[in-house]
């Protein structure tokens, strides 16, 4: 089946002369000759660079989360102190509810 498919497609296509490019391939600074980052895998350098950038971003996010947890704990302690203070004030006032 493959042979018949190949021969049929070869019959319908006209033969073209092979053309060769004689210009030199120009690369800009930083070009590695690999597919762009938005495309496929890229080369090993691009994958390693992306991995290190991702790691640095995760570390910064981790530090920010630790700071937020610390601030949240401090705010909770402050709220607990205020609640104790309110309880002390209301005990001293007396009345029917105490």
TrEMBL record:
Keywords: Coiled coil, Mitochondrion. Residues 58-92 form a coiled coil. GO terms for molecular function: ATPase inhibitor activity. It is found in: Mitochondrion. Residues 24-51 are annotated as: Disordered. It comes from the Eukaryota. Gene3D superfamilies: Single helix bin (1.20.5.500). SUPFAM superfamilies: F1 ATPase inhibitor, IF1, C-terminal domain. Pfam families: IATP. The keyword RNA-binding does not apply. The keyword Ligase does not apply. One of its GO terms (cellular component) is mitochondrion. Belongs to the ATPase inhibitor family. Inhibits the enzyme activity of ATPase. This is ATPase inhibitor, mitochondrial. The lineage of its organism: Eukaryota, Fungi, Dikarya, Ascomycota, Pezizomycotina.
């Amino acid at each position: 089946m493959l042979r018949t498919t190949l021969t049929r497609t070869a019959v319908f296509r006209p033969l073209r002369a092979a053309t060769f490019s004689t210009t030199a391939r120009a690369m800009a600074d930083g070009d590695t000759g690999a597919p762009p980052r938005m495309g496929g895998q890229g080369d090993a350098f691009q994958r390693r660079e992306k991995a290190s950038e991702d790691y640095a971003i995760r570390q910064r996010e981790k530090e920010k989360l630790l700071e937020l947890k610390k601030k949240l704990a401090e705010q909770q302690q402050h709220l607990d102190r205020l609640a104790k203070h309110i309880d002390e004030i209301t005990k001293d006032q007396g009345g029917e509810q105490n």
